[in-house]
Request: fold
Amino acid sequence: MSRGHSHIVWKRIGIGAIAVAVAVVVFALTFDWNRLRGPIAQAITRKTGRPAEIDGNLAVHLLSWSPGLTIEGLKIGNPTWAQRPFMLDLPKLTVRISLPRLITGHLVITQLAAVAPRLDLERDAEGRASWEFGSAGAGEGNPREAQGKIPAIRQLDIAAGKIRFADRIRKLDLNADVSANERRGSGGGFTLNGTGSLNSRPFRVDFSGSPLLDVAPDHAYSFESHIQAGDIDARATVRIAHPFDLTDTLANVSVSGQDLANGYYLTGLALPNTPPYRFSAEIRREGTNYQLDNVRGELGHSDIEGQLHVDTGRTRPKLTGSLKSKALNFPDLGASLGAPGGSGAAPAATRSSFLMPDADLQLNRVRGMDADVRYRADSVTATPGFPLHAVNFHVTLDDGLLRIDPVSFVLPQGEVGGAVSIDARAAVPESTVDLRLSQIDLGQIKTKTEADGPLGGTLVGRVDLHGPGASIHKFAAHMDGSVSLVIPSGTIRAAFAELTGINVAAGLGLLLTKDEKQSDIRCGVASFVAKDGMLDAKTVVIDTSHVLITGGGDVNFATEAVDFQIQGKPKQLRLVRLRTPIELGGSLQKPTVGVSATKLIEQAGAATALGVVLTPVAAVLAFVDPGLAKNANCAALTAGAGAGGR
Reply:
């Protein structure tokens, strides 16, 4: 090809390019873009599955490095079950994009300006959410994660925006004003201020951030938030690593309130009941995962620290992690068991006539999440006279089955440990308690004034109970099973009289005088059988050096009434006054201890045939610990059954 011919070709290409450019300009200037309102609305309908319409002007601006369009009167409908007809009512929207960034394969919105937008978001009691679109192709991949991703926006302008949010599951209603119409030098910023109710209690939320001008996708954006929901006060500084990509955020949060369980309507998590609390944490969101690091604070009078993780990208969110307390105030655990508050007195309106907590388990909450959390307390402040050294437990929750296994209460000498499960999958929860008392030194349990405890020696035992009930009291009122306690050897001391408020030691004929401050326990066995909430004493016998103590009676856990007697039979005839049974009555919450005035027994008499009392002893020993059968004193006590007494 000659140079002249090549020149002609390039000239024609240049003329053609100019002609195309002129044609595009002419087309952009003369074309009636309103003809595209219908196709655009139909495209939105196909994408969202919701009816869409544009009843105002449509203008397109192509001749710019930031081409864009302006839409007036855009409306996107709500699903038919929603209370309001439109999810979005937008009188005017202007969108501009970066052409150079688009050419490189990145969608960057240089300006998004909305005038008086109205956004209505609803979720009904069945869990249907208006913001979850059901069109073909929508929901591909992980829909929860996709909801947090928005194209980068360099400048966001919102004038007189309104948001209404109604969530029937969270019991949340919110009406908020949104503003982001800042200009350079104005000193303004992005704000969202809303009020409403959460679980019928006042709710307020405030967000404030720096002006959304010159926001770059590779530069973090920060804002402050403050949420007040009833007794909950939560403050956070949030950092979005890539602006408008909410799937990667970092927040420093501080929260306080009266009961963590009240946070269910904010978080959707079945958190335990607690005394008043305050804590701080660093929360990082990555997709549908939330990592809570450096959790530090207080629950009642107990410190708490650790880390947690929440995975919301599942059918049920799952909470995992580990927590610990350097110093646990043991009564603070009471709230998690249904007691009204752990560190302070309960309001009069919430007090119960029962000792056993009667607050029902929230079945819908327990069934709505999973968990795997470990907790330990390195030191414990317990009830005076009852020492605890440490507490450990591992909580798992899987599809309505709650297990605490293991659970361990460690004393300076001895331990109470085992497992507890609550099956909340049925209409009425079924619970199982299986605990063992291992080598508990009774000398640790002391009265308020005595240096030595009322009892000495070692206690072992077994608790095996099961039954229905949505609260601890309801479970106890219908439980079946057994409770067995054994003292292989020990002592009864003079302090026992102070423990009961009367001279029980003298009443039982233990002959504790100034010269003899204690009586040896050769073997003690107590066995109780529970049937539909009635705990009956089947075997109560304490073989001391001077007296054989027996007892009987029951506790009605439905009414919590106590009806119990213990009495002593001297092993040798002594010329002392007649002994009378010791009666335990009243209720578990207000027990009474006294001496019977009508049930005198002769010193040489026997309230119960020893053959009947002692016969079950061997079975009890085997149930608690098969090794107890080799204990010399308990073996001798068991042998007494075959001799028909002493």
User: Anything to note?
Assistant: The CA atoms of residues 218 and 320 lie 32 Å apart.
